[in-house]
Amino acid sequence: MKIVLVGYGKMGKEIEKIALERGHQIIATIDNTEDWTTKTESIQSADVAIEFSVPKAAYNNICNCINSTLPVVVGTTGWYDHFDEIVDKCKDKGSALLYGSNFSIGVNIFFEINKKLSKLISQYPEYSAHVEETHHTEKLDAPSGTAISIGEQLIDNNSNYNKWELSEDLKTDNEKTLPIKANRIENIPGTHSVTWDSEIDEINISHRAKSRKGFALGAVLAAEFIHNKKGVFTMKDLLDL
């Protein structure tokens, strides 16, 4: 495939390595708004784009891909306020979008475990839950998109909670509010955990990324998946979960 990388930071470079290893071509990198104009010819000849930029740029980047009917894999979070608009635009243009808060295969398996555990424990209100995530200091959004996904999955599957809240001390004013703590430490690719605590015991599930490689591989697999497809997809479609 001919791939356009939208965002050429550490993740973009890691995706480039994996893509080349799997026999694909990187025909353009988009790292600023001017590139959309100066690299039009390359963009028009591409098979798919992979977007890992920053939250404030993601919406325009996605729109540019869709307007060019260029299938796009989006790993950036922080644009979901525009989600319905983007989905409608994608369908109207007959393009393809695969989005996710995390492209690691391990994390997506973790998601399914989280849903199951949340449902199993819903009948035992003596357990209280909290979510904690740790990332590198360059990560701009807090909590992470993955932590938000984890929290929303928990709430959807456990009636003892109805919303989440960012909390540095893991405390909230309402017992039905799920606390999420975000830590920022140098050189941490990403760690997420869910803890269920009672007076007599504690249940904990966690996922720790050892490098960015797992995220990059998932993004390239996602690009291979949506090549020549139309519609809106997630990692659940790719992994058949």
**Quick one: biggest sheet?**
6 strands, parallel
**Oligomeric state of shown chains:** single chain
| Discrete helix count | 9
Strand order across the biggest sheet? 2-1-3-4-5-11
- Give the termini distance in whole angstroms: 25 Å
Number of strands: 11
How much beta, percentage-wise? 15-25%
**Average pLDDT rating:** 95
Helix share, percent: 25-40%
Principal-axis shape equals elongated
Low-confidence stretches: none
Q: Give the helices and strands as they follow along the chain.
A: EHEHHEHEHEHEHEEEEHEH
Radius of gyration: 19 Å
Tell me the structural class.
alpha/beta
Structural description of this entry:
The protein has 241 residues and is of the alpha/beta class. The protein has helices at 10-21, 35-38, 40-44, 55-67, 83-93, 105-121, 145-157, 213-226, 235-239, and strands at residues 2-6, 25-30, 48-51, 72-74, 96-99, 128-135, 163-166, 177-184, 191-197, 202-208, 231-233. Helices cover 39% and strands 24% of the residues. The protein has a six-stranded parallel beta sheet with strand order 2-1-3-4-5-11, with helices on both faces. The protein has a five-stranded mixed beta sheet with strand order 7-8-6-9-10, covered by helices on one side. A hairpin with a 4-residue loop joins strand 9 and strand 10. The radius of gyration is 19 Å and the shape is elongated.
